[in-house]
Write a structure and sequence with these properties.
0% strand, mainly alpha, 72% helix
Length: 344
Amino acid sequence: MSTQPTTDTAVVEIATATAGERQPKRQSRARLTVRRFARNRMALVGLGILVLLFLAAYVGPLFDKYDYTFHDYMAFNAAPGGDHWWGTNQGGQDLFALTMRGLQKSLVIGLLVGAITTLVAAVVGAVSAYYGGWIDRVLMWGVDLLLVLPSFLIIAVLSPLFQKASWLIFVVLLAAFAWMITGRVVRSMTMTLKDREFVKAAKYMGVPGPVIIFRHILPNMASLLIIDAVIQVGAAVIGESGLSFLGFGIQAPDVSLGTIIADNTTNAPTFPWLFYFPAGCLVLIGIAVSFIGDGLRDALDPNASGAKAKAKKIKKTGETKAGATNLSNQLQGPSTSTDVLSTS
């Protein structure tokens, strides 16, 4: 008896079952990035710390009965307790209210400086490389000039001149000296991207240069720009706190984490809470930004070491499942052949 009809029927059944299986949907780049980021536990920890810091800075003062400008003349250098959660300083100011106000200022300055720095670096680097010629020479000359200038000393000299001006001037000063290295990296990447086929096709179609830069070139280096923005936020917070600690940053009556630490450094050995609470917030910002930056690097760059390790783990799991399936098929194979022979 021939076994061909039985074999054809089995093939048809397997094809029908395979066709009936739900095929995996193609995920967008944004959704894939979010999934990769969500698999990184340390990145989630960093994001959670940053969210908690924002909530503490803006929601915490609503539950505190003291304002950061209020002086309690009945409690000088009071220890943390029920009335003053984090104690008071030598002027009777509530340390929790002061620290939350300083945390607000430091976080806002860090976010603004990070965004401005990354935007300026992206625009200058891309424009310089795309147009070339005298535009490239002039812009790179400006970058080289800013790189050799002692930025810390310049900010320290200019900051007292703007004591009565808005603190946004201080943001501009910090951002003006922090974008040059990223700008050079963007320029190098643009030199490579502008020779790609999709950019040449846009040129031949008559698309203007600015549109090509913002629609075709910069989106292809989004991973670099996002990671740089996150790193710049942490660097700006540390830089602002350092300048404020030395008296060149945020000026009274406003406060930042740096000014709070500077005002209470001399009393820290005797009254340690005056130093540890604001310094702890500063350390938490640095840790959170570092974890988030590592997570974004792994999520946006598949060639990163962390992403490779996770990919190998997933691949190993898939190979294990495939091996188990093949073993199961092999075990089922002889019995099927025996059935076919017995039928014959």
